[in-house]
């Protein structure tokens, strides 16, 4: 990989990438691996099954809660110490889930665990953008995203298998122990990105921390139409997939009375398609701009969502819906990392602050959109879900059209080898 600002050995580069990937995978696995056990959790607590979707959406909302502060803090004090703090917080929340006795406490811990996702978005993503050049950063985000996608792909299957031998409390204990290992890896290999020497020999000072300046920075971002459009588009494009993750246990295991193992198998086509889309993105970056890649991705993206709406009118809803979701997911995988890069460089503000705002807006759209789909009947049957999720995803097209007409031009930074 090519980079300039931070001198790292090949071993540190590999260890750094693996550690960030492991933390991202862990934060997603804490959600997806537990999903097959959620009906057991609600049953043990004598709680309504609506808490299955609520727990998932609270996890997403938790990713938003602290991002407004995490990003600017990492601009001021460095990405490394903030990510170490986030990993520790996540591990403690997983440990606390082992002894919880009420569904309200369980949901509160899901909110705190979701904050780990906020540290991934607001801290680790900007670090990759700062350490590597544009093409390498997009490739890394796509390839690391493939590893993270192994969670919703393998998480339900792994969770279903583990439930044969372990309780859901023991699964949380395993996540807590794994977070300790990840923390040690981050401590050993993650570089610091503040107070580094630039190519001109001068030092790059940390960004001053001021709540007033943070507020003004966020206000400026809210006035940036291109940035807002790109961030909301990120959330709307992912909404059908997020809604599927949150409602699939209810739709398949409760409504259709499928086993946890069969439920996990139905996830494979969807998330395998996202991974395939990310691999295609790596190939397309060779001869296409980011805007051109997104334009190509719109073909499977729109075709899949239209197919999902058509599945709402069919009696064979499950195979058609999964097939349509897979086609849509192919387009999502081809475009997501490229769109994130365009959103990040839609503003010249500190990348920790910008990344935090991207995360807050996109995750808020996904969390609130997923909750709305569940509230208005998306969890009642597959036909309702297919219609609502398909229409929800298509809402991104006007915003995406405006963005692609005048795409921002990310600066080509960090291109020399040090």
From TrEMBL:
Chain segments annotated as transmembrane: 12-31, 51-70, 82-99, 111-128, 140-159, 171-189, 227-248, 260-281, 293-313, 319-340, 352-376, 382-401
Domain Major facilitator superfamily (MFS) profile: 16-410
A biological process term (GO) from this entry: xenobiotic detoxification by transmembrane export across the plasma membrane
One Pfam family of this chain: MFS_1
Location in or out of the cell: Membrane
GO cellular component annotations of the record: plasma membrane
Keywords recorded for this protein, A-Z: Membrane, Transmembrane, Transmembrane helix, Transport
Membrane topology per record: Multi-pass membrane protein
A GO MF label: sodium:proton antiporter activity
Listed PANTHER family: MAJOR FACILITATOR SUPERFAMILY, POLYAMINE TRANSPORTER 2-RELATED
Protein name according to UniProt: MFS transporter
Species for this entry: Pseudomonas jessenii
């Amino acid at each position: 990989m090519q980079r300039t600002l931070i001198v790292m050995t090949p071993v540190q580069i590999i260890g750094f990438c693996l550690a960030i990937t492991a933390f991202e995978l862990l934060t997603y696995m804490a959600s997806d691996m537990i999903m097959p056990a959620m009906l057991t959790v609600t049953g043990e607590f004598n709680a309504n099954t609506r808490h299955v979707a609520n727990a998932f959406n609270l996890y997403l909302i938790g990713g938003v809660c602290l991002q407004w502060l995490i990003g600017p803090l990492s601009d001021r004090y460095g990405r490394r110490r903030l990510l170490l703090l986030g990993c520790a917080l996540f591990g403690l929340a997983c440990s606390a889930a082992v002894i919880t006795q009420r569904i309200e406490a369980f949901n509160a811990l899901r909110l705190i665990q979701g904050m780990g996702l906020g540290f991934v978005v607001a801290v680790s993503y900007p670090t990759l953008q700062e350490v590597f050049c544009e093409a390498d950063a997009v490739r890394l985000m796509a390839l690391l995203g493939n590893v993270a996608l192994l969670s919703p792909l393998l998480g339900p299957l792994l969770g279903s298998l583990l439930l044969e031998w372990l309780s859901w409390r023991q699964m949380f204990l395993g996540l807590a122990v794994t977070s300790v290992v990840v923390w040690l890896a981050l401590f050993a290999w993650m570089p610091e990105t503040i107070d580094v020497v630039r190519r001109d020999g001068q030092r790059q000072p940390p960004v001053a921390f001021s709540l007033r300046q943070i507020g003004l920075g966020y206000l400026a971002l809210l006035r940036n139409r291109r940035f807002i459009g790109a961030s909301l588009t990120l959330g709307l494009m992912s909404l059908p997939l997020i809604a599927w993750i949150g409602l699939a246990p209810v739709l398949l295991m409760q409504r259709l009375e499928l086993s946890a193992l069969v439920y996990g198998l139905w996830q494979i086509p969807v998330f395998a398609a996202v991974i395939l889309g990310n691999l295609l993105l790596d190939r397309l970056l060779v001869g296409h701009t980011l805007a051109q890649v997104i334009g190509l991705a719109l073909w499977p993206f729109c075709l899949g969502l239209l197919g999902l709406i058509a599945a709402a009118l069919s009696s064979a809803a499950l195979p058609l819906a999964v097939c349509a979701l897979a086609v849509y997911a192919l387009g999502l995988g081809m475009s997501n990392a490229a769109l994130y890069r365009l959103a990040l460089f839609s503003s010249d503000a500190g990348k920790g602050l910008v990344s935090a705002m991207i995360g807050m807006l996109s995750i808020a759209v996904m969390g609130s959109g997923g909750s709305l789909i569940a509230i208005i009947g998306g969890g009642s049957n597959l036909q309702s879900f297919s219609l609502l999720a398909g229409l929800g995803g298509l809402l991104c097209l006007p915003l995406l059209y405006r963005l692609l007409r005048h795409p921002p031009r990310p600066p080509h930074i960090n291109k020399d080898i040090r």
